[in-house]
Amino acid sequence: MSNKPSSIDTSTRLDRNLALLHAGSTVNIDISTPAGQRAKFRTTFIGYLPGKYVLIQFPEAGKLGRFSQHIVQGTAITVRGLIEGHEGVVVAFLSTIKQTLQMPSRIMVLDFPRTVGLQNLRSSIRIETQIPAKVKIDEDYWQATIENLSSKGCQLSIMNGEKLALSDKKDIQIVIEEEQALENLKLNGMVCNLKQHNEGISFGVKFESASEEQVRQLLLTTMTA
Questions:
Q1: What is the reported pTM?
Q2: Region 123-127: what's the mean pLDDT?
Q3: Could you give the CA distance from residue 180 to residue 62 in angstroms, rounded to a whole number?
Q4: Distance CA 108, CA 112 (A)
Q5: Each residue of 64-91: pLDDT tens digit?
Q6: Cβ–Cβ < 8 Å for 111, 130
Q7: Where is pLDDT greater, at 198 or 145?
Q8: Maximal CA-CA distance, the chain
Q9: Dist CA 54 CA 174 (whole Å)
Q10: DSSP string of the chain, one letter each residue
Q11: What are the distances in angstroms from CA 161 to CA 84, 129, 143, 154, 187?
């Protein structure tokens, strides 16, 4: 499959590809307000009626905060999710909120999308990023930046880390705190290719296989932002 997103705009193909996003799947939603405010949250895909609407669960109230006032009719929303059974394939579509329901639970009713994008998160893809993170090394935490990211690893930079005792193959943990859709996401990995520079240190991280799902969620959010 090509790395480039493909547009699917016929009724039959829309239905077939949306059907790959199973009911109960975790999705990321990106909400834009008329004033230009944007926020990302994780929630659950409920299902759809072909040509009519799509149902998405409201994100947890505690994470929505004041942004809940913007989840109203007419608000633009982008939905992105990993397709089960298709390793590393993302389905994404843009819609608007048609209605909100309070019963039987808090649900967003979205207009049925006109196009659906598909993208393959292959291991060869490496994305340039500037993601703030904390790195746990032994029992201490250091402020860091994820400078690039792939499904297998990433490049980290730590400012003022000249005195930090690090070596190749050392186990570390990366904590993502500032992405609303991925709050407190934790990735375990091993240091490789350590380099000192004038303002600190940078090094590669090889992710552990146990963090595969968390890495895919971070890639999903980063690639389709």
A1: 0.59
A2: 66
A3: 11
A4: 12
A5: 877 888 888 998 898 988 776 555 678 8
A6: no
A7: 145
A8: 60
A9: 35
A10: --SS-EEE-SHHHHHHHHTTS-TT-EEEEEEE-TTS-EEEEEEEEEEEETTTEEEEEPPPHHHHGGGGGG-STT-EEEEEEEPTTSTTEEEEEEEEEEEEE-SSS-EEEEEPPS-EEEEE--TT--EEEEEEEEEEETTEEEEEEEEEE-SSEEEEEEET-TT----TT-EEEEEE-S-GGGTTEEEEEEEEEEEEETTEEEEEEEEPGGGHHHHHHHHHHHHT-
A11: 40, 20, 9, 18, 20
Count of residues in the chain: 225
In terms of pLDDT, which residue wins out, 222 or 218?
218
Place of tokens 């493909």: 6
The answer to whether the bond into 132 is cis (omega within 30° of 0) is no
Q: Both tokens of residue 174?
A: 């990366």
Please indicate whether residue 116 or residue 45 has the higher confidence score (pLDDT).
Answer: 45
